[in-house]
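Page 47, continued from p. 46.
Same chain as before, 401 aa.
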Amino acid sequence: MLANVDLHIHSKYSAAVSQDMELPQIAREAARKGVKIVGTGDCLFPEWLDAVKALPEDEGLFVLGDTLFVLSVEVEDSHRVHHLILLPEISKAKELQESFASRSTNLRTDGRPRLQMSGAEIADVVLEADGLIGPSHAFTPWTGIFAHYRSLSECYKEKADAIRFIELGLSADTDYADRIADLASRTFLSNSDAHSPRANKLAREFNQMEMDAPSYKELALAIKRESGRRPTLNVGFYPAEGKYNRTACTRCFHQYSASQKDEFMGRCPECRGQIKLGVQDRVNFLADYPEPVHPDHRPPYLHIIPLAEIIALALGNKSATAVGVQKRWSELTADRTEIDVLVGADLAELKSEPRILAAIEAFRSGNVVVIPGGGGRYGEIRLPKAEISQSRPPQRSLMDF
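Result:
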């Protein structure tokens, strides 16, 4: 079976997260999106773990309607690096709660706890509990592993060989990460890091996994690429759209080259704000290869954005939550999931305005214009004018993989 999975979200118990991030809302929106397995997020937070524990459990996953939840949590280490953890059962989450209790001041007050532990120490505890761990949004300038380290081994020390995945984050894709030789053996995950259950946040990035049946064991095998289980597709943003893709000022967002950042000693000459090194320049600094070298096991990466944002672009609307946009989104997803609409369905079978169908086709073919983001401001995607020629080969649909 092929299952769409989004393994990194947050509950309402994390800072700056919508109070709508409750299990019923998440389950409902995940099913409408077309995602089968969703990370619980925040599974070390006592009230959230109790809510998950109340759900029926089936082979290490927790069932709510048509959605399955896997225990997950993001933690921050003593160097501010974020790590994504997946766990096989409630008892293991409680085991981690006990292990981390004396090393954290906010384990009971924030769903994303800060730990006074190194990445290697955290990995040791997680692996002892039969969990999986890897860096969250690995290239993000503030809290990604590559903002602080040049390699996995610098962070995880002797546990580095046991790190089976890295999460790419919104500002990177497989073309970026596969320029770094150290990452060739790792599975790449593309997850949403959603703070809201809205359709343009939840599963805005996701993975397709080949498994025999839905279970924690099968999911772990797919992440490890063992026994024939494997990821078959990463789906996510164009990297340039990420808000930290280019080196830029965090105050006025003026973009600079890496050499200019050094020349100006990290201070914007326009406003004196901090210039933050972007993902693209950080990858260039770390890269072993001038172009990506994809290992044989690496699945394709499909670039899309949420359907509501495509509709908004087509209609010339600034907001994906506008009434008109949501009305058309509901019409398109009335009898199929959003993922089906985006990348699977025959456009001739979709009932919508020609300009919206044309916009969906533009994304499927990769015929869009991306204005890069940086400094904390997202980039912008524009639909090309008729005279703009297609500059890359057509992007295949999900059904082609």
